Amino acid sequence: MKKLLLIVFFALLGSALFLEYKRLTIKPWPATHFEDVVEHFKYGSIGAEVDGFPYAIWRELPTIFAGELPQGYAGFGFLGEEGRDLPIGVSVRRIGVDRVGFNCATCHVSTYEIDGARHLVLGAPNNALDIQAYIRFLTGAAQDPRLTPDAVIEAAEANGRPLGWFDRLVLRRVVFPRLAEEVATLEARLAWMDGRPPHGPGRTDAGNFWRERWGLNPSGDSRVGVVDFPSVWNQRLRTDGWFHWDGNNRSLDERNISAALAGGAADWLLERRSIERVSDWLMAFPSPDWPLPLDTDRVAQGRAIYEREGCDTCHDPGGPSLGQVTSLAILGTDPQRTDLFDAEMVSYFSDVGEKYSWRFHNYRTTDGYANMPLDGIWMRAPYLHNGSVPTLADLLSPPDMRPVAFFRGCTVLDTDRVGFTCETGFELDTTLTGNGNGGHLWGTDLPDAEKALLLDYLKSL
Hints:
Layout: H1 2-25, H2 37-43, H3 55-58, H4 61-64, E1 90-95, E2 97-102, H5 104-107, E3 109-114, E4 117-122, H6 131-142, H7 149-158, H8 165-189, E5 203-204, H9 206-213, E6 227-228, H10 252-262, H11 272-282, H12 296-308, H13 311-315, E7 325-327, H14 328-331, H15 336-340, H16 343-349, E8 368-370, H17 392-395, E9 405-408, E10 412-414, E11 419-421, E12 426-429, H18 448-459
Antiparallel strand pairs: 1-2, 3-4, 5-6, 7-8, 9-12, 10-11
Helix pairs in contact: 2-11, 10-11, 12-18
InterPro entries: Cyt_c-like_dom (IPR009056), Cyt_c-like_dom_sf (IPR036909), Cytochrome_c_Peroxidase/MauG (IPR051395)
Keywords: Heme, Iron, Metal-binding
Pfam families: RoxA-like_Cyt-c (PF21419)
């Protein structure tokens, strides 16, 4: 009898220990909370670590692949801060093992350079961040013969963060055996990218991400939904209008949640309180001021031209068309993004979150693009929904005089033409599908002197 009781006891103990092991290694650990909302915006979790790259490997990749990453992850446009191990916009959370993920700041913190000094701007579109190139590097590195457990262990030792015996065991027996499967899954999910023009820095294609999620086989066609990262400051100015570039949703919550899901968050792990906390903070977070002195008389003359040409109707708070959609028949810009979000897409969006309180209800189709406020417009280059026009001066030029190709991804401020000076980097070809730079003809027929005054006013916004 005693022997039977011992057998039962150890069986129960074994089961308990196994369940505890599963809890500790599979169940997500609580996300790191930052008391300071700015720090939370930059480093907090939105729930996007669930399929993230294992942190123990990720942090050593710049050492193992030093030839490919001479600048580390900054080479992809990630921004770093003194005293921080992680780039802005990257969070870490234990889900089985520590994993990295994106958050709101990944795409919405940027920099500009003037007189050799770099300035960080929260809420700005990160026009230098090439997420597509970063993902392709990770998938390639995971399959490179140079990436081995020994290489990670040696790199960690060289970087002053040696792994203990248990971490080494987990790395060899758990992390690496699963890495190939995880990367193969990621590659399959992103195969549609190969049949389309590259995104380049500061742009993404969330539309085809959703189509892949729903099994709509974006790899079987060449439809493009690429758009520029938007700014996220002064969100209160936008709450009476429609969100996303094509104005396909009027709910701020749905806009935020859909962005989180497109950024890698899982429905079941979505950090809603974190997202709402950041969203509340951004409601009144101000746009940046133009960094150089402005001539107030020229600004006033520029404002008069702005009003005379009717720009305030679409772009000023209180304007009757602010936040509303202007039809492509009038606007004339590249149609690919709005064409992608058709009735079929909208029908699938109605099922997103069906098991949760935040289920989507506000998606719609449109026939154009939404009129945005111009706050901080000087820090939002390149321009149009697809970032196909490098400067405001170019946007005020007729389409046949706009650059057919130009470099993206630089941060040196062009104080005359209002944009970023870029002589190397990723070259955007506006003749490729989804990259068209036509349309938005307002102001293109003004005399050069009036265009210069209008630019001075736009700098002041």
